[in-house]
Amino acid sequence: MPLAVGILALAGWELAVRLQGIPVYILPGPILIAKTMVADWGTLSGSLWITLSISLAALSAAVVLGVSLSVLFAQSKWVEISFFPYAVILQVTPIVAIAPLIIIWVNDVKLSLLICAWIVAFFPILSNTTLGLNSADHNLLNLFQLYKATRFQTLMNLRLPSALPYFLGGLKISGGLALIGAVVAEFVAGTGGSQSGLAYRILESGYQLRIPRMFAALFMISISGIVIFMCLSLLSHLTLRRWHESALKREN
């Protein structure tokens, strides 16, 4: 059904462009965009790989640091109260405003892009996983205390399984945000050459009035975001389908 809606929308777009005689430098049709994508695939695919590699590296760093800090927060309420506000500051600070400073301070374009994407992707994982670790059933926590379970045993056998659905929810959000963070950072950095991501290709195409190529790069970013979301949704379904209410099939 979503595929049919998408095909109908693209057909309506192509029809509107042709019937209205809209110039390609204002709004190219989907067919011309697809032809441009095929013609420039060599350049665009290389830029796509660079943007995706930054996004996936930032997401991996966000998972490692987000989960590690969440586990630390779960061990002590004082630690959570002391450090969580600083994570909120990272989340609410516009990445467009601080990206130029990060690029200047780090003095390494790739590392600065990675840091910018990580800042955007980090908070949903930290916030959701912390919430999940704190949402473990209190009756079960009392039972673990009654049987004198260690902190490590309580964490591994109760808190982490309880937090898994929350973590996977945050992961799905962060997947798209990592891509957005990488693209925004590339826009700010504006680096050229063969090692440039899709955001630079959009800027370059805009300067040269190659609007179909601009739309092709934009389309590739959108498709990449959808693919990342679908992969993470599949991971969530495969992980939760046998035991969690959100993924279990209902009889009626």
Could you explain how this protein is built, in words?
- By secondary structure, the chain is mainly α.
- The chain is 82% helix and 0% strand.
- It is built from 10 helices and no strands.
- The protein has helices at residues 2-20, 30-39, 41-75, 77-92, 95-106, 109-134, 138-146, 151-189, 198-207, 211-240.
- α3 (41-75) packs across α6 (109-134), α5 (95-106) crosses α8 (151-189) and α6 (109-134) packs antiparallel against α8.
- The longest helix has 39 residues, at 151-189.
Topology at a glance:
Layout: H1 2-20, H2 30-39, H3 41-75, H4 77-92, H5 95-106, H6 109-134, H7 138-146, H8 151-189, H9 198-207, H10 211-240
Helix pairs in contact: 2-10, 3-4, 3-6, 3-8, 3-9, 4-6, 5-6, 5-8, 6-8, 8-9, 8-10, 9-10
Alpha carbon gyration radius: 22 Å
Shape: globular
Number of helices: 10
* Percentage of residues assigned to helices: over 70%
What is the number of beta strands?
0
Major sheet, described briefly?
none
Low-confidence stretches: none
The residue-averaged pLDDT reads 89
Distance between the termini: 22 Å
Helix and strand pattern: HHHHHHHHHH
Using brief descriptors, characterize the structure shown.
252 residues; mainly alpha; 0% strand
